[in-house]
Amino acid sequence: MIRCPQCNYLESRTSSTPLEHLKLPLWVFSYLLIESIELFPLGLSASAICRKLSVSKNTGTLLKRRLQIFCSDLIPLIKEEMVKDLKKAWKGKNLPESGDLKDSIEGLPVIHTDTLALFSASQRANGYRKRFKHKGQTASIYLTDSVAEEKGKYQIGTLVHTLAIKGGPVILSSVPDQKQKTLQPLFDFLPEDVPLFADEGIPWMERYNKNFRSINHSKRAKDTKRNVWGRNRWSENGIHTQVAEGTQRSIKYSFLASYSYIRPENSILYLNEYSALKGIRVYGLERLVGKKKLGLLRNVGKGYVEKDSLAHPRF
User: Fold this and answer.
1) I need a surface site. Which of 3, 65, 86, 248 has the fewest CB within 10 A?
2) Are the beta carbons of 29 and 22 closer than 8 angstroms?
3) Helix 267-283 / helix 242-258 crossing angle, nearest 10 deg
4) Predicted pLDDT at 104
5) The predicted structure's pLDDT at residue 165
6) Stated pTM of the model
7) 3-class SS shares of the chain: helix, strand, coil, % to 5
8) 11-38: string of b/e by CB count within 10 Å (b at 16+)?
9) How far apart are CA 20 and CA 12, in angstroms?
């Protein structure tokens, strides 16, 4: 408990935090946080929590949710540090309009973006029917209308949008599709005209970012008799998305190994947990949480009238 120095109002230290009304000792949550950081990139599932702490299934699930909410609160702080690093590195600098970019980006943070289909629906799950309503990656996470009506669920997989920096933080988002109106708000927190590498999935970004560069993964070879695909379809003139693709490979492996499957409605919690643990590895917990100033105590100073005994009821 903590006491207000002005009105002597007592309040719990965990009030207005993800640990509010937690009936277990606080060291339990600290242990789970440290264990999650050490296990990263693997995740700490609710079943693993039950085994480590010898608690019930409901308690393990509750602790997992509290950990995910705590990690979700760190995402805005990670974005702030990410923006500071980008502004400091690229202040007054721009990429050359043409030519090799290797010398221009050497040692500087560059954002790589890509999209991943996580836990996609197989053709067997779709009743051995082909998907005509959706195309590309979006088709793999949805069921056809007839099968969805029969099973009572429409989305079975998760589409993950990735923003990654080499040796830096990762921002993951769960998206329903790859349309511009869906993906464009995910870039709003970034500085203006920050260098951004992607594939040809977001061609509209050229209108908003002059330092945007894309690579054609479907580039064909000049000599089609020997090779079908071009050798420079993954990297050309220093432009590539290998940081995002490597992150997505790690995500796919860790999620399959740790959880086997997650529901689409809970996907953002798991993705925020992954992003936050990665941010803690990069920046450190003290740098992220230490700058978060404690505001006024909840219910203290709001509607308070001097010498009014009803300002803070004791029941």
Assistant:
1) 3
2) yes
3) 120
4) 81
5) 92
6) 0.82
7) 40, 15, 45
8) beeeeeebbeebeeeeebbeebbeebee
9) 8
